Each structure stands twice: as structure tokens, then as C-alpha cells.
Amino acid sequence: MKSTDNTNTRSGPKTDLLPNLTRELANMDSCIRCGLCHSVCPTYQETHLEEESPRGRIAMAKALTEGHIEFSHDLIVHEESCLMCDACTEICPAGFNMETLGLALRTDFRAQNKSTHRINRLLLLPLIKLKLLRTIAKSLHTFQKLGLIEFFKKSQISKLFGAQQLEKLLPSINDSFLLGDGQKWEVPSSKGQITIATGCVMGVAFPNVHRAEIRLLNAMGYSVTAPPQGCCGAVHAHNGFTKDAQEMARSQIDAFNQTEGPILVDASGCTAHLKNYPVILRDDPVYFEQAEHFSKRVVDATEFFAPLVKDLPLKKLPGKIAYQDACHLANLQKIREQPRQILNAIPGIQLEEMTDPTMCCGSAGIYNILEPEMARNLGRRKATSVKETGATIVVTTNPGCQLQLESHLADEQVQVIHILELLDKAYMYDSNNNSDTASA
């Protein structure tokens, strides 16, 4: 790593400039520099550079916080190239936590105007104002129907803006949206009420996943409600917009306080962040206890369905299937067996394990936009792993993973599908039940 001229001049701890990193010093001190993290870190595996490893990033962050080195462009680039997939946390024998360090780094970098990710806060506004996001999505759908997006792709203008690669990551927008605006799907003699989080991207780009989830729950005898809600704030938190993320967390807690029972989430990245609200709001004297109560209600959809799947009437779906472990499901939530339990319960399925199934696919929220080269390399690596299994279907649990996989498997005879959509296809519905309530 290149350093500035005063790299070796100790200027003293930067407690005022880097308050969030300062509170992470004990976490950084826990690193015993064994290097075990190298074996699972996506960026190290691609570059074999120490500064692109968790151990290297910890050392640089600690030296910066303690005043041994100053800010430099190279330091910030290497710190921000971390995908925050948390594979290093999962394998660390000493208990180091990359999620909290990463959040602290990006918060302090953003506050000091040092971030090299020149993403404007306004670009994330549609995730705060979901009506704006849905308006944009509907406009994109109109453009798709009129053929304007295809025209733009083939034009020289798209090359000037570098938009051709970005377009591959866009979902096929549906003109029918499942909005979290107080809708309910009731069933007679209900076993109980399940509250679902509809999110931002999931509700716009993958509404069919929500519909599959509701059909399954209704068919199993559960009533479902989706209160008026917003984005969970994960993208904001992971890009240093901490105040926005905190405000969004408070808003979500307020929205779900009007409901009871478990909060079911079908986007694993969102599940992890919603469960992490006590960390996001740890300094909030009003909301911290509410955040703890809220996080205990949050359940990933795979957690909920896994113990029930053995009792479901499922039809045969023959074929080879590969499963992509979403980082924030496998590493942050330790949920690995439940999705496989669901898949193995479907008759006819032959589950083929990938090489390095938990290696990040390169999506990581908006990482594939901010770090396109590394994201492409990791996407190609993951696509190769999928193809080596011989599977015709790859199953995932997260919208970012699904978009990334679709973009890299577009020319292959491989379908990418959310696990709940696959389970929905296998479920043998009773024609007398009310399970068609989410089919509109």
C-alpha cells in the first residue's frame, strides 16, 4: 500500500476525527493475525494482496485510528473494497467482527468526506421514499414495453455512459406491484397471523416472491398482513449514511409495532440488517430496547419454512439444482442447513453443491455498481461454480444475489430462482382453500 509522506509520523489517536473507529479498537485488537481469513476472503482470493485481506484491512484501520498513519487514497480504496460478506468473521478463531468494523469505517470516512465511493445521498433517496422508487420502476417498465431500453443499449450513448454492463443488473420490471400499504390476506380458522416485510427492491423487482410466500402461508392456514413500511436501511448503513439508516430503522420499528407475532422476511440481506437494529440504534435511549424486541421478532423465511416442509404435500420437480449461500444468511445469521432442508424435501430434486458455496457472488448490496471490476470477477467465478455442478437451476434467497447470478448466467441454460418460488411450484395446493389470494 502506498503511503503519504507523514505515514511514519505518529500524530496521536484520532478519537475526535474517527469516533466510530475508536470504539472498534478492542474489536481490532482481537485479531491474532493468523491469516485464516485469507482462505475465505473474496477480494484476497482474487488479488492475493495483503491489503485486500481482512487482516490487512484491520491493521490499516487500527494504525489510522491510533495515529500511526494518515489518510491516503490507497488506504481508503482497500478498506472500501471489502464486500462486508462477513466470511472472515465466521471463520475467525478469535471472535473478530467485520460487520461492526465495516460500518464504523464507512461512517467515519463519509463524515470526513474521505470516501472514494462518490455516491451521492440523493441517489439513495428512492429507497427512503418508496413512492419515488415505484414511480421510477413503473417508468422503466413503460420504457421496456416501448423498446426504448433496448434502443438505448444498442446506441453509442450507452457506451459513453458505460451503461451496458449496468443494464445487465436491472431486473425485468413487472407492472403489478405488491405494496406494503396495509394489505391483509386472511384465511378462515387461522392458525395465527404472520407479518411480512415487503422491503424496497423485493417489492418492486421481485413481487412474485412475496406472492409465493403469501400463497404458501395462506395454504398452511396462516393469515398474513403487510403494514405500511419502508426500506430497512441496509444499503445506507453499509455506505456510511448512518443517520439515514438510523432514521429508517426507527420508522420500521414504528410500522411493525402496530402488528404482533413473527416478522417474516424473504430477502436474506434485509433479514440480517433488521436483526442488527440493536447495533444500529445502540446509542438511541428511546429506541434501543424497542430495537431489541423488534429484532427478536424477525425471522428469515427459510428459518420459518424449514421445520414445516416435511409435512407439506409436495409434487415432484425433477432436476439438478445448485444452491447459492447468500453471505448475510450463511455468515451473519448462521443459516445454512435450513435452505438445504427445504430443497431436499422436494421430491425429484438432486441438490448439487458448488465449489466454495459461501464465497460471495459480488453483489453485496450496490457493490457491483461501486466496484464493478471486482464484482464482475466474483460474478464470473460464481457462474463457473454453478456451471460445474451441471445444474439447470440455481436457487438463492436474496435479490442482489439473484440479479448478479442472472447477469452472469444470461447466456447459459441455467434458471435463477428464489427458494420460495421453487417451494411454491412444488406445493400441491388444495383447490378449496384461499391460497389464490396472492395471485393477482
Can you summarize the main beta sheet? 5 strands, mixed
CATH fold category name of the largest domain: Rossmann fold
* Mean pLDDT across residues: 85
At CATH level 2, the architecture of the largest domain is 3-Layer(aba) Sandwich
State the helix count.
26
Number of E-state strands: 9
Large-scale geometry? globular
Give the strand content.
Answer: 5-15%
Q: Helix amount, in percent?
A: 40-55%
* Strands ordered across the widest β-sheet: 1-3-2-4-5
According to CATH, what is the class of the largest domain? Alpha Beta
List low-confidence stretches.
1-9, 155-170, 175-179, 431-437
Rg over alpha carbons? 22 Å
N-C termini distance:
55 Å
Q: Can you give a write-up of this model?
A:
- By secondary structure, this protein is α/β, with parallel strands linked by helices.
- The chain folds into four domains: 19-111, Fumarate Reductase Iron-sulfur Protein, Chain B, domain 2 (Orthogonal Bundle); 121-167, no CATH class; 183-305, 3-Layer(aba) Sandwich (Rossmann fold), CATH 3.40.50; 312-426, Rossmann fold, CATH 3.40.50.10700.
- The protein is built from 26 helices and nine strands.
- The chain has helices spanning 19-22, 25-29, 42-47, 54-65, 73-80, 87-91, 98-111, 125-128, 130-146, 148-154, 156-161, 163-167, 201-205, 207-219, 234-238, 242-256, 268-275, 277-280, 288-297, 301-305, 327-330, 337-344, 367-370, 372-389, 399-408, 419-426, and strands at 183-185, 192-197, 222-226, 263-265, 298-300, 319-323, 349-352, 393-396, 415-418.
- The strands form two sheets. A five-stranded mixed β-sheet has the order 1-3-2-4-5.
- Strand 8 (393-396), helix 25 and strand 9 (415-418) form a beta-alpha-beta unit.
- Helix 14 (207-219) packs across helix 26 and helix 24 packs across helix 25 (399-408).
- The longest helix has 18 residues, at 372-389.
- The termini are far apart.
